[in-house]
Design goal:
The protein has 254 residues and is α/β, with parallel strands linked by helices. It has a single domain, classed as Spore Coat Polysaccharide Biosynthesis Protein SpsA, Chain A (Alpha-Beta Complex). It has 6 helices and 16 strands. Strand 1, helix 1 and strand 2 form a beta-alpha-beta unit. The longest helix has 11 residues. The radius of gyration is 18 Å and the shape is globular.
Length: 254
């Protein structure tokens, strides 16, 4: 299995790049490349290239950075990483054991405190019956995330019994995606793996910038069309603490 690792970064957040690259190099992957997109000096490491990015065009334009990675990728399997995610030992071995038959993949994401971060997720807004509806020409910049949710009533089974004020819910890693669950899941933009053909077909919506739910909007389109799987044999770890909602729901049974 061959991999393109795409890292999005900026001059203010590139402190962990060496650690991330080292974690990839230690996997001993025969064929891989690392693409770094950001307004930083070129990184002189093996199989690594830097694509300059003008951060002043649209601040926080991470959707465009991720699409750049998809177009520039050489290999069919793309690993998208924010610049504070490192690959855990055994990650590549776990991918080999799982196999290459997937469209979109998630693995466990470990926070600095040893707990889980956003990996196998339900979007509670979707469970409440909301969907995101955006027009490509709509001016999005400067609006709060909640303004992008358009009420579109849906059948909420099998989650009707779940009552929570949280915005998201962690699923037990052993819960498989079914047709009943898929419409309510989303892929956190912090990290995920996908086929290049999937990312070229379902590109990230560049009308959305950082903190405007580009990952949530992409998820509702991509997961409706492509297979989504959890690979518990591989994992990644955050290099800095990231807070989650205190009242996040943990779903072990449905």
């Amino acid at each position: 299995m061959d991999f393109t690792f795409g890292i999005i970064t900026s001059p203010d957040t590139c402190n962990y790049l060496d650690t991330i690259i080292e974690s990839i190099e230690r996997q001993n992957i025969p064929n891989y490349e690392i693409i770094i997109v950001g307004n930083i000096p070129p990184v002189d490491r093996l199989n690594t290239k830097t694509i300059p990015f003008d951060e002043s065009i649209i601040p926080g334009w991470i959707s465009h950075k991720k699409n750049i990675i998809s177009y520039a990728a050489t290999y069919e399997n793309i690993v998208f990483l924010h610049d504070y995610i490192c690959i855990e030992p055994g990650w590549y071995a776990g991918l080999l054991q799982y196999g290459n038959d997937f469209d979109i993949m998630m693995t466990p994401v470990i926070n600095c405190n040893g707990g889980r971060f956003r990996d196998w997720l339900l979007n509670v807004w979707f469970m409440r019956g909301y969907r995101i509806i955006l027009r490509p020409t709509e001016a999005i910049e400067g609006h709060a995330l909640g303004e992008h949710y358009i009420f579109a009533p849906r059948q909420m089974e099998p989650f009707r019994a779940l009552s929570t004020d949280a915005d998201e819910a962690l699923l037990d890693h052993t819960i498989n995606v079914t047709d009943a669950i898929r419409p309510y899941m989303y892929v956190s933009g912090t990290y995920w793996i996908a086929k290049r053909k999937v990312m070229l077909d379902c590109q990230i919506n560049e009308a959305l910038v950082h903190c405007q739910g580009e990952d949530v909007e992409w998820s509702q389109r991509a997961l409706a069309k492509y297979r989504y799987c959890m690979n518990t044999g591989s994992s990644v770890r955050l290099l800095k603490e990231k807070a989650m909602s205190q009242n996040i729901l943990y779903v072990s049974k449905i």
